[in-house]
Specification:
This protein is of the alpha+beta class. The protein has three domains: about 200 residues, Threonyl-trna Synthetase, Chain A, domain 2 (Threonyl-tRNA Synthetase, Chain A, domain 2), CATH 3.30.980.10; about 290 residues, BirA Bifunctional Protein, domain 2, CATH 3.30.930; about 90 residues, Rossmann fold (3-Layer(aba) Sandwich), CATH 3.40.50. About 35% of the residues lie in helices and about 25% in strands. The strands form seven sheets. The chain has an eight-stranded mixed beta sheet with strand order 10-14-15-22-19-18-16-17, with helices on both faces. It has a five-stranded mixed beta sheet with strand order 24-23-25-26-27, sandwiched between helices. Helix 8 crosses helix 15 and helix 12 packs across helix 13. The protein is globular.
Length: about 625
Amino acid sequence: MQNAEANASFEAAKTDVQRKSLDQREQMNELMRIRHSCAHMLATAVLRIWPDALLDIGPPTDEGFYYDFDLPSHRFTPDDFPRIEEEMRKVAKENQVFEKRIQTREEARAYFEGKGQKFKVERLADIPEGEAISFYQNGEFVDLCAGPHVMRTGNVKAFKLLKVASAYFRGNEKNPQLQRLYGTAFKNKEELETWLKLQEEAKKRDHRRIGAEMGLFAFDSEYVGPGLPLWLPKGTVLVEELERLAKETEFAANYVRVRTPHLAKEKMYKTSGHLPYYAESMFAPMEFKEAEADEVATRYYLKAMNCPHHHRIFAAEPRSYRDLPLRLAEYGTCYRYEQSGELFGLMRVRSMQMNDAHIYLTAEQFAAEFNAVNEMYLKYFKIFGLDRYLMRFSTHDPSKLGQKFVNEPELWKKTEDMVRDVLKSSGINFVEVPNEAAFYGPKIDVQVWSAIGREFTIATNQVDFAVPQRFGLVYKDRDNTEKTPLCIHRAPLGTHERFIGFLIEHYAGNFPLWLAPEQVRVLTIGDDERLVDYARSIVTELRGQQVRAEGDWSTNPIKAKIQDAEQAKVHTMLVLGGRDLDAGVVSVRLHSKGPQGAKPRAEVVADIVAAIRERRA
């Protein structure tokens, strides 16, 4: 588990943090300012203890803060945390003022070169020309920083160091490897203690631990390869139940299902625009000649996304406006080359099955279709008991058209206005985030919170006005002219891997009846032949109605049988004794909830079947 946690830390450490704009900094709330200030207090303490430390950056994060150091003379370990925290408490007690001062670029460079702080010198290049270069000083510590901060170090009252990880400078593996210290801070000790207890509960719900205990999935790095999950029988139940849910939901919404191969020619991804810009996230190509006479080998890539294949399905037949909206759905397998340090259980993998669909439509149909997709999300949220969610509406930055975003300013404005209008009219909880759209159009990332309040990104919903045109996709409109359709990319259940990882932690492995790998186990009190026959008949009846039912009529004591079923997280136990046999009843027991009383056999069977069919929580 420690190695896995280190990999999780390293995942974030291999991506360079995006510098906040001055407007974004002004919007930082009190908690973010506390955490930002605490990062400076951490650096102050480290320099007091290890004066030779070189500094990089120390931003606040959603869960706390970190600071990156280059310190060849010492490797940080958790054993250092008490000493560093004690020094931080001294800094807080000194109640130092956070003072801001403006420097010229030349003055800033001279200052940090004089201190030998080479990373700070390089970070000066991140500050746009024309933007003021500011320093913040607390006590003896001076940092290159645009703020904001709290007034004094004494305003930071509750903090804790959490972990240490490696981090490449600027997130680039070719650069020096730094040491990253993570911490968190809150407004008061009560909030900090509550958060720490939540983290302890999160460890208990870790999907990697529960997945191993329940026998849901496995990884085999030696023979199969890192990041390529093997779904064991019980985990495959979860996969198939989610697919069944998606297929039923999509069938009712008039989607049609398609299937596509797992690889395609290089031409496909060059046309879509994924190559060369997405090449680092794709597996290396396979090259071979289709015929001996070929002078040039053909390149094939493993499929990293389903959309180009679906575009070719759209193009496979003549299309009319009468065919639109056309909703193509597939649980498609994709392959993405995540760096080894980025792999993290089911949350970051190299092989994934995506609840994908692409809706081809006219601009006039957009509002209704986009709203229908959002309604599908809400239906799923209700099924899985997700009461807290947020949709992050990501838009483009006009200054980066032709670079990060497709150079179609009018289409960007039009589609972003359409998405914004639908979100507002439907009353969905959303926030708007600039400069994070997909390269081909605005997108929505769906954030949900688990039962213990942990935040996850589970799905995405994107508008594409560019790639259909790249593939020459057209339909005949009412006036017999050819027009290019819009395309909505949507994946409400994300990938099996990430969504099941979330569900394991959300339910702590205690899945609702319809989703539980083992739904019912029939337990006999003793091994009397008549009683065993009665138990077998119940199992047969349940399995005849597609209920995942097993039986335990061994000679083990009933307490041991119940304990085994509880440890296996079997949802419903039917306990049978001689009296139950004579009365034609069964005693119902629910996992972690205990006995529910004796009921007639037919009533119990009917209720189990109905609960599964209705996907009751």
